[in-house]
Amino acid sequence: CKLVRYIQHLTPGVQIYVLLSICVDRFYTIVYPLSFKVSREKAKKMILASWLFDAAFASPAFFFYGSSSDGHCNFFLPDSWQGAVYSIIHLLVLFFIPSVLIVLFYQKVIKYIWRIGTDGRTVRRTMNIVPRTKVKTIKMFLMLNSVFLLSWLPFYVAQLWHPQETDYRKSSLVFLAITWISFSSSASKPTLYSVYNANFRRGMKETFCMSAMKCYRSNAHTITTSSRIAKK
Q1: Using CA atoms, how far apart are residues 26 and 24, in angstroms rounded to an integer?
Q2: In a 3-state reduction of DSSP, which class is residue 152?
Q3: Cβ-contact 162, 190 below 8 angstroms
Q4: Comparing C-alpha atoms, which of 140, 123, 144 is closest to residue 132?
Q5: What SS3 class is residue 72?
């Protein structure tokens, strides 16, 4: 019971801080392309920091959750001052503050792109060029973040609300509805990627044998490999 509730508090926090890291990367890539670059090592450190920070911050769930005498595993935080304080801090640190930062970063990126031109092909400002593909990527991540934040909002509101669990059937239905809404953000990602990302659509077609490019790429790989062996 404690482990399941801990994971339910851990995963959304990790996701939102990883999304914040991607947002920071997109911001500097578009607005300050020469001053900051996220290398593979920096990306690993940012992801690791997201996991470690949230793993430590979600650890009080082991204290607040547990099974009752009749074997019921509580769905929500307890209706006490400790539970209220933790739910407020949890809402602020793991949802509200990173959400505001994500919105501010993307607002600056969209404002920057809008200000320097919208000719439909390439957005220019002096020597800095923002290709149309990057603009589409920003739109895709903006939509992903919006869906994620809206779908996980009921979970954090419910933890702040502290519903009474006297009626186990009613509370389980409420928790089930909130869980389905929350994890629907992950289920919606393939659809959003297919709408905004041509490479994803092509890869899906190749996976389901709906494109002749699979055969072409296989032959190209064979030719390239043979050329390298011939050169050696």
Answers
A1: 5
A2: helix
A3: no
A4: 123
A5: coil
pLDDT in tens, 73-113: 777 777 778 878 888 888 888 888 988 898 888 888 888 87
> Would you state the structure tokens that stand for residue 39, as one six-digit string?
């290398």
In order of their start, the domains of the chain are 1-196 (1.20.1070.10)
The set of residues, in sequence order, having a beta carbon less than 8 Å from that of 136 and lying 6+ positions away, is: 196, 197
Strand, helix or coil at 141?
helix
What is the pTM (predicted TM-score) of this model?
Answer: 0.69
Q: What's the CA gap between 121 and 168, in Å, rounded?
A: 57
Quick: pLDDT tens for 167-191: 777 777 888 888 888 888 888 878 8
Rounded to the nearest 10 degrees, the angle between the axes of helix 198-207 and helix 168-196 is 100
How far is residue 160 CA from its own chain's centroid?
Answer: 22
SS3 129: strand
